[in-house]
Amino acid sequence: QGALGLLAAIGQNVAEIDTISYNSAISACEKGAEWQRAVHLLITMDLALLKQDAISFSSAIRACDKGAAWRMAIALFVAFDRICLEPDAISYSSAMSACEKGSQWQKALALMAAVDQAHFQPN
């Protein structure tokens, strides 16, 4: 809550909120398992024409993992490709973890195969 309030206050006092500010707020949502808010902030970044980066998506995917929102975690993972970013090992791991929590072992296995093709070491 505090990070979101701070982001809103900054927006009222500063002409432009940057990607780093949004990423910090998304990361705070991740720590509190507030996946809906993390996704909302990610969408808001897009609407504000701010560049979403790997940190933006990784933090939102981790929030979905912690909030047991496997469908959204997978949707965000797929969105990496849409904006021409390469998911990192943490994103793969978080997406697989979300699938595991949702009893989606087939999807987790598909992600594991993608990890192998991306030459990451699963953890």
Describe the structure.
The chain is mainly α and 123 residues long. It contains 7 helices and no strands. The protein has helices at residues 2-13, 19-31, 35-47, 54-66, 70-82, 89-101, 105-117. The mean pLDDT is 83.
N-to-C order of helices and strands: HHHHHHH
- The computed structural class is mainly alpha
Ends distance: 31 Å
The tally of helices reads: 7
Relative strand content: under 5%
Low-confidence stretches: none
Shape: globular
Number of strands: 0
- Helicity level, as a percent range? over 70%
Features:
mainly alpha; 0% strand; 73% helix; 7 helices
Topology summary:
Layout (H helix, E strand, L loop, with lengths): L1 H12 L5 H13 L3 H13 L6 H13 L3 H13 L6 H13 L3 H13 L6
Helix pairs in contact: 2-3, 2-4, 3-4, 4-5, 4-6, 5-6, 6-7
Short overview:
The chain has helices at 2-13, 19-31, 35-47, 54-66, 70-82, 89-101, 105-117. It has 123 residues and is mostly helical.
